[in-house]
Amino acid sequence: NLRAPGEIESRPSGLHFIPPKGDLPMAAHQHQKVxxxxxxxxxxxxxxxxxxxxCVESVIKPLDMPVKEIEEGKYTAVIISGGPQSVYGKNAPKxxxxxxxxxxxxxxxxxGMQLINYVFKGKVETGGTREDGQFSIEIDNSSTLxxxxxxxxxxxxxxxxxxxEVAPGFKEIAKSPSGITAAIEDAKRxxxxxxxxxxxxxxxxxxxxxxxxxxxxxxxxxxxxxxxREEEAIKEIREQVGDNDVLVLVSGGVDSxxxxxxxxxxxxxxxxxxxxxxxxxxxxxxxxTVVKALNDVGLExxxxxxxxxxxxxxxxxxxxxxxxxxxxxxxxxxxxxIGDTFMVVSEKAIKDFKLDxxxxxxxxxxxxxxxxESASTVVSSNAQVIKTHHNDTALVRKLRxxxxxxxxxxxxxxxxxxxxxxxxxxxEKLVWRHPFxxxxxxxxxxxxxxxxxxxxxxxxxxxxxxxxxxxxxxxATLLPTRSVGxxxxxxxxxxxxxxxxxKKTPDWKTLFELAKEIPKKVHNVNRVVFxxxxxxxxxxxxxxxxxxxCQDTCxxxxxxxxxxxxxxxxxxxxxxxxxLPVILFPCDFGIKGGRGIAIRTFITNDFMTGIPATPGKExxxxxxxxxxxxxxxxxxxxxxxxxxxxxxxxxxxxWE
Length: 656
Known about the structure:
- The chain is an alpha/beta fold and 656 residues long.
- It has helices at 44-53, 67-73, 111-119, 206-217, 229-241, 254-267, 286-296, 307-312, 331-352, 368-373, 394-401, 414-423, 428-431, 456-467, 508-521, 551-570, 621-634; strands at residues 33-38, 57-62, 77-80, 106-109, 123-139, 152-165, 171-175, 181-186, 191-194, 245-250, 272-278, 301-305, 316-317, 320-321, 360-363, 405-406, 474-487, 490-501, 525-531, 582-585, 595-599, 638-644.
- The strands form 4 sheets. The chain has a 9-stranded mixed sheet with strand order 2-1-3-4-9-8-7-5-6, with helices on both faces. It has a 6-stranded mixed sheet with strand order 17-18-19-22-21-20. A 5-stranded parallel sheet has the order 12-11-10-15-16, with helices on both faces.
- The longest helix has 22 residues, at 331-352.
């Protein structure tokens, strides 16, 4: 008897909560467990990770999990995640209505709060103002949920729908700057809801709020100490591999290197065949570096130079063949071609090694965020696709279903992988390498053959909206480039806004404030950059240099990326910045044949959310100025250098 919210004909005001007798319910085994019901959130696994940090055992299940199974699982509390749907929408995730009668302490996050409010006869409506980004909200710190906090707290909000009437029996315990209800509670029933995301780093008191719910509301003892992550992973590898051989595709990043080293420890080097695929999209001297690093830890690495094969490769999407990679514009096509070509190359490698195809598994360093952003069913059947990861394509999913893929790191986040790498004895230089996607520079070259993907009318409207942000010597310009973002747990492809200034020294505080405000108000924009150099006083630029994947564009980006990397190492900034993609994009900035370079600093712990480094704080201004001048003087064909000012969300880490 599963229902979607819109299917409820009547919602009784007195749902029968059965309060527990005596002590709070305990699991049958040693530890209490919290159940995380996934409504399609991009952050569901982050909730799980944060709960584990608080020494509480957690399990993620789909929202439609039957209450009978919940009762059998003997959970102590329930957290309902966020999600991209509306409680009134036809695609709203289904749930067992008895969920709200089970008597367990409950915390609803974002969509979860809206669902709780709706079920208990409150109102949820689509408002005129989206809230995407960090906001300082007012909180009632007399609530147990906010115990020990000040009366204001900075949180991440990402929603369009809002609670407009609090359900009977509940009260508002937090409010956003727009006057929108940001949290509700029914303390008697021990049911709470927050419109924001306490699980992400951008919610500064989020961990304290989760701790209050788990320890003070639900009564968790916080005594869950899991077995060593390394031991668990090794056990799983041995069980899955059996007596098979394993083929490892090493991209050059930390994930695949740790994956290979973990496999070596689990089953020994004799049955591991490590391959590095040089597809032509590597960073400067990347292949040489990764070969030496893995040789030093006892793994031989065979390098396959297959640049031409990748450029000429095609794949089928929805039954239709794509153009060759070297002619592709669409980001999703590029990723899928690269992902499927990785698989084709691996099959060929198996034959070259004379391995029995029925007795070999393909190992990948896929992480949990990769699967979440690809909406893989390994994590949840509800999550929306933000981007397709090269190692989570339809072909990979088919191999996974056949049991031919092994992903030892699939339950790990980036920071956990680094810790595991150190425990395995990998050198610090390798462990702290900045993340580098398997498709390499191919997804950091934005391909285009026309300036805009929005109509002339929308261009004029957006440019006009941006004029409102011209102030204090700062100018906002619509750029003929789009990038991927994540807003309200769903993907968005929108335009780029460039900010420039006539001041000798940029006013970074104001620039960051504008970068936060513009995507909220200008709906065709999801990313804002600062453009170094002379001010651009026109409301929009309209010309680009046609850009495809080829030797010239790869060489341009490779050279610019190397300059940025050199400066990071020289100034000991590698650990201060979690990731630093350098992007080549087709805007010519009025110089025929020119292109732009973007520097995307990223500071994060969970890689699901993050902020750019602040010049003068996390990254010295003189270092940025050197990067700008060196790129313009040493890389032919670059018109301007830009600095990405946008947090995640609304922008993603990568630009496509």
